[in-house]
Amino acid sequence: xxxxxxxxxxxxxxxxxxxxxxxxxxxxxxxxxxxxxxxxxxxxxxxxxxxxxxxxxxxxxxxxxxxxxxxxxxxxxxxxxxxxxxxxxxxxxxxxxxxxxxxxxxxxxxxxxxxxxxxxxxxxxxxxxxxxxxxxxxxxxxxxxxxxxxxxxxxxxxxxxxxxxxxxxxx
Length: 171
Fold this sequence. Notes:
By secondary structure, this protein is an alpha/beta fold. Helix content is 45%, strand content 14%. It has one domain: NAD(P)-binding Rossmann-like Domain (Rossmann fold). It contains seven helices and five strands, in the order αβαβαααβαβαβ. β4 (121-124), α7 (135-153) and β5 form a beta-alpha-beta unit.
């Protein structure tokens, strides 16, 4: 596995070319920034699979549109692609209805098999950042969710990198 500290910005951009990346937490602040940045600086990324907490794929697509790609940060990409923006997003982003709280994210076995064969990189950014959250709820998301991501990563046959983004601890 490559270490980000060993790479300069150009090699990071090049590293994402033709890679399939699973991102959790894409509807959060850092997640949106990451998705936009990858699509803007490396349009040759193969696919971004965004795990979105939703009961079905239609709801996941709606959350993607309203909470991610409709945001101001995507204006540069919208300007660059013009009327082709929606097609570009549809080609590059695959929303997955699931939750890190569930084993295998709650994905069905066919989805899971296909995903495990395709994923090169996992970025786990899903977490609760509400520091007044009940301890057990925060523990479930921030600890058990990370454990589920690691268990999923172990099933990915061509995984090259797992990046875990953690929330800070408020004293």
